Automatic annotation (TrEMBL):
SUPFAM superfamilies: NAD(P)-binding Rossmann-fold domains. Gene3D superfamilies: NAD(P)-binding Rossmann-like Domain, UDP-galactose 4-epimerase, domain 1. It holds the Pfam family NmrA. This is NmrA family protein. It comes from Zopfia rhizophila CBS 207.26. The keyword NADP applies. Keywords: NADP. One of its GO terms (cellular component) is nucleus. Belongs to the NmrA-type oxidoreductase family.
Amino acid sequence: MPKPILITGATGNQGGAVLRQLATHPSSPQFTLLAVTRNPDSLSAEKIINRHPAVKLVKGDLNNVASLFASAQQALKESGRDSKIWGVYSVQIPHGSGATIPTEIQQGKALIDESIKHGVKHFVYSSVERGGNEKSWHNKTPVPHFQSKYQIEHYLKAQAGPKGEKMGWTILRPVAFMDNLAPGFPTKVFLAALRDTLREKPLQWISVEDIGVFAAKAFRETDVWNARAEGLAGDELTFEEMSGCFERITGYSAPVTYGMFGSALLWALTDVRVMINWFKTDGYGVDIGRLREEEKDLCDFETWLKERSGWV
C-alpha cells in the first residue's frame, strides 16, 4: 500500500520542490502525496492538481496541526486509502503573512508532537546551515531566524529520539537560496548589500529544487537518512565570481543598485543585517565536493541561471 506523506508548504518554493521530486520520480507509486494548502481553490493549489493529478489537497495550516492531521486522514479516506500518515515534510516561515519567529517555533514543535502522536514513521525538517554538519548542532548563530531553527532541530532530536527511536527523522540544512535572486529591484538592493559587506568573502548557495531532491531521497532511503542532519549547497562564489556567471549567461554583470540602497536595507532590517554580517564573519560550511559525490546533478549557480532562473 502506498505510504502517505504530508507536505507542508506545498504551494511554496520548498514544499513545491519536494512535491515535484516525489511526484515525478519513478518510485512515486509507493507514496500518496498530501499537499497542505490554506485554500484548495487557489490558483497555486489548482496548478498542483493540473501538474500532478494523483496528489491529494489537504486544507489546513500549521496554526492548528490537530485539525490539519484530521483533514489529511479525511482526504485519505475519501480516496479509498484508510491508512495512517507515514511521512511528514516540515517547513515553516519566520516572516510574512502574519508569521513571526515565535510562531515559527510554535508551529515547528507542534508539528513534531502531532506527528509522533499519530505514529509517523519518518519526519523531514527543513532548517538552515550554520557552519558545518557538526558545528551546526552547537552553533545558534546571532541570526534570529537561524536560532529558531536551531531550537526546532533540538526539539525534534529530543522528542523523536537521537537515533529516531520514537520517530525517524532527517534534518536538511540549506544555505542561501539562489531562487531568492528573482529579477527585480529587491534583488538589486540585496546584492548591493552583499557586495559591499562580503567583498572578497565567498558565499554558499543552493537551488531550492535540490532541497526537494534531498528531501525525496530522505523519504525513499530512510535507512540511509534516518537520524541524519545534512547541510545543502550547490556552489560557493565571491560576488565577483557570481557577477561573472551573470555575464556569461545573461550578457550583463550581476544586477545591483547604488550602495546606499543596500546600506538602507541593512539599517532598516535588523535580521537581514545580522545575517549578512554573519556571512562575513563566519558563514556557511557545507562540503560541496562530498555532497556532489552523493548527488552528481547538484545544481551550480551558472546552471541555475541558465536553466532554472527567470533571468534568461
